[in-house]
Specification:
Helices cover 32% and strands 25% of the residues. It is α/β, with parallel strands linked by helices. The strands form four sheets. It has a six-stranded parallel sheet, with helices on both faces. Strands 14-13-12-15-16-17 form a six-stranded parallel sheet, sandwiched between helices. Strands 7-8-11-9-10 form a five-stranded antiparallel sheet.
C-alpha cells in the first residue's frame, strides 16, 4: 500500500514507523529538515522537504498515486491539515485523513460535510484520549477495556496482583473451578508477561504481574472480576493534574455525569480560563500537583481517582505513584513515550493513556480490507483488537473455527449476531454479516484480513 504522511512530528513519525513495519511504502513530508533526518534515522521511509500545503510538494511526494494520505502536520492550525488533505484528494489520493484540534468539527453534521468534500476521517487525538480516560473509569476493576455493540461484548485487561487467587494457577485448573453456566460467559484469550504476549495453553501457569486479556458477555464481567479478586468502585470524586485540552475535556465529561472534579494546574492564566469555561461544579486550583505535600493539603486521600495529564511523562508517572501511596484506588497517567508505558504499569499505575497508540488504531484500519470496523491497541501488549463485519461468502464463513487454518497467534474472541452476543469456541461457525472481535499479534494482521475478504 502506498501511504503519504504529511508531518514528521510525534504522531506522524510513529505512524510512519508502524505502517512501514506492515510492508507499506511510506513517504513523509515536512518543512523541517531536522525532523525528517531524525525520522530517517530509525525508519526506512522516503522523505520530502517542503511546505505541507504546497501542491508542488504534494506532487513530488506522490500524493496523486497514494492509497492513503494522512495529514498530521505538527504545531500548526487544523486548517493546514484540512487543506493538505483536500488538495491530496483532488490530486488523486484514494483516501485522506486529517488531524484536527476543534471538537466542533466532530459533530455529526460537520463530519458529514467534510466527508462529502472527500475527507474519510478527521481525528482529534486529545478528544480520543479524553474519551478513553472517561471510559476507563467505568471499568474500574480492569486495566483497559473495549466495548463492542454498546457493551454486549467486552474485551478487558486484568492485572494479577500479589494476593490474587490466580497466582500459580494453571489455565486448566482455572477452567475446572469455573461453574458450568459460566463457561459461555467469558474466556481468557491472552497473557502479557515481561513484554511478551502469550496465547495460553491448558498447561500455562498464571504469574504475579501478568496482564490477562479476557473476552466476556455483559453478564460475564462480574464473574471475571470475582475470580480475579477484583471489586468494582463507584467513582464519585476525581482529581486531575493538568488543565490542558485533555484535562478540560475529561473534567467537562465527568461533571456532566455528576462526578465531583478538581483540576490542579500550575499556570494561573490557564486556571482563569478553565474557571470561565468549565461548569461551576468543577473546582480549579492553581498549584503544583507533583508536590506530595500540596496533594495532601488538597485532600488527595478523599478521592476515588487521580488522573495525571501534565504534559510531562515523568511527572505524570511519579504523581500517580504518590497518589497510590496516599490510598487513591484508581490512577490514570498520560504517557507519550512508548518506552515508559511498561515501566508505568510495573509501578502500579492502573491505566496508561498514549495518544499515539489511540490514533494509530484509528488509522490502521484504513490499511486493511473495508470489512474492518476499527482497531485498538490494548495496554501492556503489542497485540491488537480488530472488529470485522463479515462479508457474505468470505473465507471465514466456510468452516467451523477449529477447521479454519486461522493464524496461531490470533484468536476469534467473540461474535455479535443481531441482538445476540457470544464467546467464540472451536465449533462456532461464523455467518454472513456477523460482527467478529479478533485478538491478534501484529505479524498476523494481513493474513487474518484475507479471511474477511470476498
Amino acid at each position: 500500500m502506498r501511504i503519504v504522511i504529511e508531518g514528521a512530528g510525534e504522531i506522524g513519525s510513529h505512524l510512519a514507523k508502524m505502517l512501514r513495519a506492515e510492508a507499506n511504502e511510506i513517504t513523509v513530508i515536512d518543512s523541517d529538515a531536522a525532523r525528517l533526518a531524525a525520522l530517517s534515522g530509525y525508519a526506512d521511509v522516503q522523505t520530502v522537504l517542503g511546505g505541507p500545503s504546497s501542491v508542488k510538494t504534494l506532487r513530488e511526494a506522490g500524493a496523486a498515486q497514494a492509497d492513503l494520505f494522512i495529514a498530521v502536520f505538527p504545531f500548526t492550525t487544523q486548517e493546514i491539515n484540512i487543506v493538505a488533505a483536500l488538495l491530496a484528494k483532488q490530486l488523486g489520493a484514494k483516501k485522506v485523513i486529517a488531524r484536527i484540534n476543534d471538537e466542533e468539527c466532530l459533530s455529526a453534521e460537520n463530519r458529514l460535510l467534510f466527508k462529502e468534500l472527500g475527507i474519510e476521517l478527521m481525528f482529534y487525538p486529545e478528544k480520543s484520549a479524553a474519551d478513553e480516560i472517561v471510559n476507563s473509569l467505568k471499568h474500574i476493576s480492569s486495566v483497559d477495556s473495549m466495548d463492542f455493540a454498546h457493551g454486549k461484548l467486552q474485551i478487558s485487561v486484568f492485572k494479577i496482583d500479589e494476593d490474587s487467587p490466580m497466582v500459580d494457577l494453571k489455565l486448566e485448573e482455572f477452567i475446572r473451578i469455573m461453574k458450568p453456566e459460566e463457561t459461555g460467559l467469558f474466556r481468557i484469550i491472552a497473557i502479557s508477561r515481561e513484554g511478551r504476549t502469550i496465547i495460553p495453553k491448558f498447561g500455562t501457569v498464571f504469574r504475579y504481574g501478568d496482564l490477562l486479556f479476557t473476552v466476556s458477555t455483559r453478564e460475564g464481567l462480574q464473574s471475571i472480576s470475582k475470580y480475579f479478586g477484583k471489586t468494582e468502585l463507584n467513582i464519585q470524586k476525581v482529581m486531575i493534574m493538568g488543565g490542558a485540552a485533555i484535562g478540560e475535556m475529561v473534567a467537562r465529561s465527568l461533571a456532566s455525569q455528576g462526578v465531583s472534579v478538581k483540576i490542579i494546574e500550575k499556570d494561573r492564566d490557564l486556571c482563569i480560563g478553565l474557571s470561565e469555561r468549565l461548569p461551576d461544579s468543577v473546582l480549579v486550583v492553581s498549584g503544583d500537583a507533583s508536590n506530595s505535600d500540596f496533594l495532601y493539603e488538597e485532600g488527595i486521600r478523599d478521592y476515588d481517582a487521580f488522573i495525571a495529564l501534565s504534559g510531562s511523562d515523568e511527572s505524570n508517572v511519579l504523581s500517580c505513584v504518590v497518589a497510590k501511596k496516599f490510598g487513591v484506588p484508581r490512577t490514570v497517567a498520560e504517557v507519550e513515550n512508548i518506552e515508559y508505558i511498561r515501566l508505568a504499569e510495573e509501578l502500579g499505575i492502573d491505566t496508561v493513556i498514549n495518544k499515539k497508540l489511540i490514533t494509530a488504531g484509528r488509522i490502521f484500519k484504513f490499511t486493511l480490507s473495508g470489512r474492518a470496523r476499527f482497531v485498538k491497541y490494548l495496554s501492556g501488549s503489542s497485540a491488537e483488537i480488530i472488529e470485522y463485519t463479515v462479508a457474505p461468502g468470505s473465507a471465514i464463513t466456510r468452516k467451523p473455527i477449529k477447521e479454519l487454518d486461522f493464524p496461531a497467534d490470533a484468536i476469534i474472541a467473540g461474535v455479535i449476531r443481531g441482538s445476540e452476543s457470544f464467546i467464540a469456541v472451536g465449533d462456532t461457525r461464523i455467518e454472513d454479516y456477523d460482527r467478529v472481535a479478533v485478538f491478534a499479534l501484529p505479524r498476523t494482521i494481513k493474513e487474518i484480513d484475507k479471511f474477511f475478504r470476498i
